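Limitations

Structures in this collection are predictions, not experimental determinations, and the ligand pose is part of the prediction. Treat each record accordingly. The example that follows, with copper (II) ion as the small molecule, is included so readers can see exactly what is and is not provided: the inputs are given verbatim, and the output is the predicted complex.
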Amino acid sequence: MSSRRDFLRGFLGGGATLLASANAIAKQQEGHPGHTQPVSGTSSDGAGASSIPVVTPDIPDLPFRVDNDVKEFHLVAEPVKRELIPGRVMDAWGYNGSCPGPTIQVTQGDRVRIILDNHLPEPTTVHWHGFEIPVEMDGMPYISQKPVPPGGRFVYEFPVHQEGTYFYHSHGAMQEMMGMIGMFLMHPKIPYQPKVDHDFGIILQGWALLPNSTIPNTAGMEFNWLTFNGKAGPAITPMLVRLGSRVRMRFVNLGMDHHPIHVHGHTFGVTGTEAGRQPEALWGTGNTVLVGVAQARDVEFVAKNPGDWMVHCHLPHHMMNNMADLMGERLIVTSALTRVQAQRQMMLMRQSGGHGAHPMEHPPVAENAESVPGFPQDAFMEMPMDAAVAKPENYGLAEKWTAGMMGMMTLVRVLPTEKYDEIMAMRGQQRPAEHQHQ
Ligand SMILES: [Cu+2]
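Predicted complex:
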């Protein structure tokens, strides 16, 4: 395993690093990039008066300006390039250069204005999923408003009286499948109890992306790329938390499949749905939560067990990249693959899956492997690409960790304080352009 110095050189592009100054930056950014202030805090009773901002890994927040007590956001619907894993770029649609769209964070009681500009080649609208707002603001094309033409603008404005994990999306079915969704987080006026130390949001999506195409087949039913916040494992940025802290994770699903999201090493309560906070009596206990289409689920737990713990969809085919390639091969080859065929399968995956730029590597297989019915299964899918996804949040993970990460798989890294601070310092040092494989 490389030393920290080597690692830093890797992602900073060489040169010495000044951890001292990085520490200072990280102190400000700790836990929530893009925010240095709590998002609410209207009451004056000091600690306990505000919620911490939610971190949506690999997705930026949408900035706003305040105009006479109205929080005004500017949302631009447009085509977006999204790199699922290094080397595999998708032509999706989204908002403000991001797919999923940027995260909107407001506080219960806010009045919100969202100026929508349509830079798509066809009409669109934005629906505010589950919002209790006047029907003219509901974003239903032809029903509650005229579709916004290409180059057109529509201004949504409404008071927010709810709280919880919400989202916005186009109400065109195909546009939804092109990625047009974003999180809309309503922080409660009075913070939830018990307070959490870390708060994360993840959008679950599935894509039918044929090996020779960069454009998702929005009518297809064979979903071969499965993403958290528009990234597939191992390119998804892990969630970093302090050992002993209380953690909330919010999951939102918009796609054609339901996703049972499983957290390793911890037991959680389901504290919220797509309609806000649940009464404590309903939280229950679990380690897997089914997030159905159009649903949101918040889970909370105390990160009491140190280590790098998996957070993933438990549908086996959602723990893979490039399902279509595999299915193509398996349809042609009805019996077990020979070693030669397996090698071809691996080549195919490398070509279409972004592994082409990385050295071919696979785990050892037995000498008689091809005579064993069923071989291969996972052997040629597990290809490490640690260097390609190196970033502070991945620092210190086991060598070849990336070989075990595909599809809807990421980590919650429960770190002792020193280690947490060290990585946050590295992150503070890193320039944004090098951070995102966007
Ligand atoms: Cu799934």
